Amino acid sequence: MVPSRRSFLAGAASLAALAVQAKFGIAATPARETFSVRSSDGTMLTGDAQGDPQAPEILFIHGLRQSRLSWDKQFSDPALSGFRLVRFDLRGHGDSDKPPSPDAYADADRWADDVAAVIAAAKLRRPVLVGWSLGGYVAGAYLRKYGGAGVSGINLVDAVTKLSPDLLTPLAGTFARTTTSPDLAERTAETARFLEACFHQPPTGVELQRMLVVNGMTARAVAEGFVKTTTPDLEPVFQAYAGPILLTHGAHDRLVRLAMSERIQALRPGSRLSVYADSGHSPFYEEPARFGRELATFVTASARG
């Protein structure tokens, strides 16, 4: 087939698809752009973005042993379709580089530089940061080094803001040891148990299989280094942050105690705590419709502030 005819048919097919979507009210799948950027120490980070670049922005930061795919439900949520959505794989995870030394994960400033690099690469103006679990610590590390002027709000989702046995469960402490075991059999079994502990309403089938693969891709050095961080307490950072904070927490979280979020709420009058009665450590996955509605409301209000 000659190129001109091929181009004509492709264009005609696109117009037909748009006509069908308009007639039956089917929303077009948003275009997604993948990007890569080097952080300050040379670590390559991979992410993707979708939505109007001029719309209010949300930067999603996933948790330990997860990946940017954790946010798939948010990227397909109609409630969030009017926003610029950006996500990336943390260092040591997914498609991003995996430095072999635990030192690469022990320094809060390196996590902060990663967020700054992604913000620059995605050309974000003033995003809301959504930090889940370890991602909450990463968001706090960014605020600690770069301040809050470039952020319009923070959504902490079952977030780790202080490494303390009073705020983390004994099970979380156990996983910190067993999922980094030098024994491959133990490490494999415990990584699967860790994933199970992230949910009250667990994934099944293909979704579970994919999550297990992603968890297995994570570098051992991540957890080995993170637990040795010289910056274990970011509560003062969130207390000093002048912007709005939404705290989201699953009532059945088996890893991070509700008290972790309650402490931030107490330190920051005016912040809002939203407890999800049917969720564990992953309310954005277990109750995605509610999560999307609340996040959309929060981002809209933050953009106006």
Any overview of this molecule?
With 305 residues, the protein is an alpha/beta fold. It has a single domain, classed as Alpha/Beta hydrolase fold, catalytic domain (Rossmann fold, 3-Layer(aba) Sandwich), CATH 3.40.50. The protein has 13 helices and 8 strands. The protein has an 8-stranded mixed sheet with strand order 1-2-4-3-5-6-7-8, sandwiched between helices. β3 (57-61), α2 (72-75) and β4 (84-88) form a beta-alpha-beta unit. α4 (108-121) packs across α5 (134-146) and α7 packs across α8. The protein is globular. 45% of the residues are buried. Residues 1-22 form the signal peptide. InterPro entries: AB_hydrolase_1, AB_hydrolase_fold, AB_hydrolase_sf, TAT_signal.
Brief description of this entry?
The protein is α/β, with parallel strands linked by helices and 305 residues long.
Write the layout of secondary structure elements.
Layout (H helix, E strand, L loop, with lengths): L2 H22 L7 E7 L5 E7 L6 E5 L10 H4 L8 E5 L14 H4 L1 H14 L6 E5 L1 H13 L6 E5 L12 H9 L5 H14 L7 H13 L2 H7 L8 H6 L4 E6 L7 H10 L4 E5 L6 H4 L1 H17 L1
Parallel strand pairs: 3-4, 3-5, 5-6, 6-7, 7-8
Antiparallel strand pairs: 1-2, 2-4
Helix pairs in contact: 4-5, 7-8
InterPro entries: AB_hydrolase_1, AB_hydrolase_fold, AB_hydrolase_sf, TAT_signal
Organism: Inquilinus ginsengisoli
Protein name: Pimeloyl-ACP methyl ester carboxylesterase
